[in-house]
Amino acid sequence: MKKVISKAIAAGMVVSIAAANGVAVNAEDQTYNIGICQLVQHPALDQATLGFRDALTEKLGDKVNFDEQNASGDSATCATIVNQFVSNEVDLIMANATPALQAAMAGTADIPILGTSVSVYNVAMDIPDEEWTGTTGINVSGTSDLAPLDQQAAMFAELLPDAKTVGLLYCSAEPNSVYQADTVQKCLEEAGIEVKTYTFADSNDIASITTTASTECDAIYVPTDNTAASNTEIINNICEPAGVPIIAGEEGICSGCGIATLSISYYDIGYKTGEMAYEVLVNGADISTMPIEFAPQFVKKYDAERCEALGITIPEGYEAIAEE
Q1: According to DSSP H, which parts of 134-257 are helical?
Q2: Spatial strand order in the sheet of 32-38
Q3: How many angstroms separate the CA atoms of 98 and 53, rounded?
């Protein structure tokens, strides 16, 4: 009996030592606990979380448990959620959206963190462009939802050639939105289009800011912005009656208030994040050297009903967004 117990203890020590040194542990021998912190509920982030869960469930079956928490758009709540994950000693944290990633980074330097729906990681992590290598060097990696911004900007000339003034509408508290807006502004100004900026601090002033933008601009650009994505109905109820078309940073926002977008599949980047999690948890991959991954493809899409209502003709090469 003593020999059996000794062997069991020895086996447990081997597994523990292997895990501590990044050596792969057989997935059949371990159940993994994953904490998911999603900033807010809206279609894009929901799809990313679904893809993440599907990827890990396909690979691990019932050997993976998810603690999925939604912060309802509040960064402070993200921090509370992450702190609970740390207390529970989860094996990995999936941070869905930039504020969730930032909260996870502040909450732990030891637990692996994978972000998704984060547009520009070095901006989110406050790493200067000249120092950015594509990997973080710490316990963080993940997937980006950034689409080619120059091609999004080019849609204005392609779809709205008469638009002389374009408004940039976004949340000033989201650093990735600021980055996207600044980049698109440069592209539009190089094309000879006047640009005006309209920012809101949170959802409370979206209506008033959008109203101002719709009266001063011929068209509007809304980047991949979580606050805007959660309030597309408010934006659309102002801009569509005013006859002001919106080009959006992603499909979910486009469905809610836009005419067109160059978008990605959030399910796909979530799924890729799940595959990365498997590599870290089961195969012992070093997360600090894992490159940030990007969407495999980008698709030009349009909202058929809204384009018809605004009298906008969409050229070939665009795919209609499927109605739910």
Answers
A1: 149-159, 175-190, 206-216, 226-229, 232-242, 251-257
A2: 64-70, 32-38, 92-96, 113-118, 140-144
A3: 19
- Which residue, 38, 133, 148, is CA-closest to 93? 38
Identify which of 235, 267, 271 has the alpha carbon closest to the alpha carbon of residue 251. Answer: 267
The answer on pLDDT for 9 being more than 90 is: no
Cα-based angle 81, 86, 92 (whole degrees, multiple of 5): 95
pTM of the full structure: 0.82
d(CA 15, CA 24): 9
Q: What SS3 string covers 46-61?
A: HHHHHHHHHHHHHHHH
The burial of 158, by beta-carbon neighbours within 10 Å (0-12 exposed, 13-18 middle, 19 or more buried), is given as: middle
Q: 201, 199, 174: which is closest to 97 by C-alpha?
A: 174
Q: Which two tokens stand for residue 110?
A: 């030891």
- Token digits for 108? 């732990």
140's enclosing H/E stretch is strand 140-144
Rounded-to-integer distance, Cα 158 and Cα 154, Å: 6
**Inter-axis angle of helices 98-107 and 75-87, nearest 10:** 40
217: closest CA among 187, 186, 238, 191?
A: 238
Return phi, psi of residue 162, to 5°: -90, -5
> In 10 A of CB 64, how many CB atoms?
22
Could you tell me if 256 and 301 are in contact, meaning their C-beta atoms sit under 8 angstroms apart? no
Q: How many secondary structure helices (H) and strands (E) does the chain include? A: 13, 12
Tens digits of residue pLDDT in 91-122: 999 999 999 999 999 999 999 999 999 999 99
Residue 30 has pLDDT above 70, yes or no: yes
Mean pLDDT of 248-268: 95
* pLDDT tens string 158-185: 999 999 999 999 999 999 999 999 999 9
* C-beta of residue 238 within 8 angstroms of C-beta of residue 194: no
